[in-house]
Each structure stands twice: as C-alpha cells, then as structure tokens.
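Minimal example, chain plus beta-D-fructofuranose.
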Amino acid sequence: MKPFFLWLVLLFAIETFAQDDERHRPQLHFSPPTAWMNDPNGMVFVNGEYHLFYQYYPNDTVWGPMHWGHAVSRDLVHWENLPIALAPDKLGYIFSGSAVVDAKNTAGFKSGKNAPLVAMFTYHDPEGEKAGRRDFQYQGIAYSNDNGRSWTKYDKNPVIANTENIKDFRDTKVFWNEKLKSWSVVFAVGDHVRFYNSLDLKDWKMTGEFGKPDGTHAGVWECPDLFALKINGQTKWVLLVSINPGGPNGGSATQYFIGDFDGKTFKNDNSPETVLWLDHGRDNYAGVTWSNAPKNRRIFIGWMSNWDYAQKVPTEKWRSAMTLPRELGLKQTETGIRLIQNPVKETELLRSGEVLSVRDQIVEKELSLGAGKSSLVELDLEIDLSKTDAENFGVELGNTKGETYKIGYEPKTQKFYSDRTNSGKMDFSDVFGNKKHVAQHLSRSKTLKIRLFFDTASVEMFAGGGATALTDIFFPSEDFTRFKIYSNGGKTTFTKAKAWNLKSIRR
Ligand code: FRU
C-alpha cells in the first residue's frame, strides 16, 4: 500500500476506535472523563460556581477505593472536570458526604480572604471490614481555602468515631441549623438516620434519630438529606433516604419523608407505613441537594444508575452519569403534600431548535417526529384525558436495527410505564431489560402534562408538574434517532406537543 493510503486507513481505524470507545457517552449529562463514578457528593455553591464532587475510582471502570472526583459548573448545564479532590489515606476510603461554606469560620480553618469550604465525609476502613470488625465506618472533615481546588484533611479525624460498633454508619449531609444557630448533620445508621449537632464542625453530639419503623426497610439506608421547602407560606421539611435494594421497580432507589424538624430530630407527617418515592425509574440513586444555592433554590442531582447492574453496563472508558440537575418544590396533591421536581430552568440553554409544535392534535395511531440526526430531544406534551380513549399512549424511540424504547401512560390504570425490554444491549445483566417499569399517577385531573428529556443513553420523565419522575438508562447498539408519538387501541388528544433538538454540552 502507498504510504498515503496506509495513513488514511490508520486515521479511519483511530476514528472508529475512538467512537466505539465513546459509544453511549451522555451528551446532556455530567459523566466522568474516564473510569468509575457513583454517588454525587459535597455539592455546594460558592463564588458563582456549583461544585459537584463524586464517588470516584480513577483506576478502573468498576467500584474500588473511593476518592472524591470534582467538577464545577456556572450554569448547571456545562461542567468542567477538575483534579481529584480527596484521596484515600490511612483512615480509609473516602465515602459519600457533603460540603458547606463556613462563612463565620466556626471551624477556624480560614487562612485567606475567602470563607473556607468544609467537607464532611465518611471514612471506610477496608482493613477493618476485611478483619470482620463492625466499626469500620466513621466521619471525617477536610477544608479548602481556594474555592475547592485543594483540600486539607483535618489532622484530628475522625470527628465522629464509631464507638457503638455499628456496621452501616455513613453518608453525612451537613447543614446550617437556624433553630439551634449551629451545624447539624444527618447520616445513615443501619436502619435509621441520626442527627448530630456541632458549633464548630469538629465536636459533635447526637440530638436525635428517625426512621426505625418508617418507610421501607427492604434495603440498607444510605445517603440521607434534610432540607426545608415552602408550601403556601408554610415550611415543611423533606428527608431523602436512599435504599438498596428495595426500589419500586427493583434495585436501588430513593424514598422521601415529609414532616417537621425541631432542630434536633425529624417527625414524619405521614403514617410510618407510607412509602414515597422520589423517582420511579431504575436509574436515580443516592441523590442529594446543593448547599448554599442562590435564591433559596433547592437543587438536586442523582447518580443515574442502579447497583443491580451499574458495574456491568456496556460503556468502555467510563461508567455512569448524573441525572440532570432538578429543582425541588412541594405540591398539595389529592393524597397529601408531595415532592415535585423539574429540570432546572437552565436546561433551556440546551434547546437548539423547535422540531415540532402542534396544538389540539388527535393521534389515532402514530405521529412521527421524523428521523432526526440526533437522539438529544426534549418533549413537552399536554394530553386531554377526557378526550382520550386509547388503551395507552406514549413516545417510542427507534433505530435502524429495530431496537426500541417506549415510555407512556395507561389511562385505565392511571399508570405510567417505561419499556426497555427491546432497547438494545441488555445481556450484561438478567435484570436490566427483563420487565417494564411502572409508576402511579397522583392526580385525577383531566389534563396530563409530561416533559421528557432524551439523551443518547437515558430518559428522564417529569409528569403532572413534576409529581411523578421516571429515570431510565438504555444502551441501543445504534443511537435512537427515530421518534414517534403513538396511541394504541383508540385516540389520544394532545392539546399541546412541542419538541426541541438539544445541543450537546460536550462540543
Ligand atoms: C451509595 C453508597 C454509599 C457509600 C458509597 C460508597 O451508593 O453505597 O452509601 O458512601 O456508595 O461508594
């Protein structure tokens, strides 16, 4: 072969290889440049930046000795990945935790002009675990005086030792407690959460515990978060608790409680048997909210995977992504006060062009949205259920290989469903494509609103004004670029259907 030809062949091979390497790479969501990622950690807003730390193992695409990876964003949409923030040391791996701005320098870590950031995380001692001990998790802190770019671990760690020999003792979410004018932290302790209090982030005393009889206990409790939200001028407290396994559609998922916080402990408004789910899809776990977000916004991000198969999903260079950042609120529903979530307004920055905008469209079989170039689409649908007699309706994604993903609604049962049983690569796990996922709709109103965000390997659905969320990932062997709206067994009346192509955040 002529050298020029050889060169061309080589270029082609490199390009193909690089593409394969990056197959399924999310284009709208944060994913680590390489290697393994799980929970979001240490989210804090300061000096115009949203910090996102994350459980990270830089040396492999499966879980390993945990570090805190680090990324920042100014708009919650575009992310810049930064060097690793925290690495394991002789006290153990760095498990999940949170970070705050210590504006009053209560811990005394301040060295420059800026208020220091203080991170509180769980140490996990693998040696202790191997030796069959029960006290291998305890809490530590670290601080940064340069906007989170470098961190120093406190030399007297741990700040909360595991003196009671409790096996699962982790995932600290620290927050300013206005009632006690001091810091509080909530973390998971076996089958419940505990609250501790401190004036200086170093010396902690337990103030209460919650949850032994409450919610579901089908799995271990992890990654709690506690925050206040307003509804009709009233303050209510929301407690998030992730559990693994035991999710509504299998594997890991996040439940929440609504109630009050007297500064020392949480009181549930609902009966202990009530189980509320933050998300009904398979792929939203360990999510927590940003500390110090401007304008009192309560912004959430979750890990978009499931411990059932996270370490086996078919990506080459990296594993996992985060959900879109979501703004949380409360809503009075027919069954009580419920958490609502919607993608942050900043996601509108992603819209590149409207590809569909119709009003009062009756769909009898299907309405094709065409075969676009891209699989990045936002859809905004409004359905008049009083003028709909279909058995089910929804959105179907497809590709030239005949693979499909469906997400829709069944008016008779008032259930949303998603179906990835034919969505492409599934053989990496027995429980990935084995069944449809369902979610109960909370409202009986005749108007149903559904917002959907499709990325190359995921969908996020927000229905009923954000009262029902469903997040799923999928791995088609070729991108889904064919979109259609379908109506089976009757007609569906769309009072509104709008679609936008979205811009990749990676270009
Ligand atoms: C949740 C979790 C946490 C723990 C971390 C370890 O996914 O198990 O409880 O801190 O992951 O990576």
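The mean pLDDT is 95. Residues 38-39, 55, 66, 95-96, 122, 170-171, 222-223, 286 surround beta-D-fructofuranose (CB under 6 Å).
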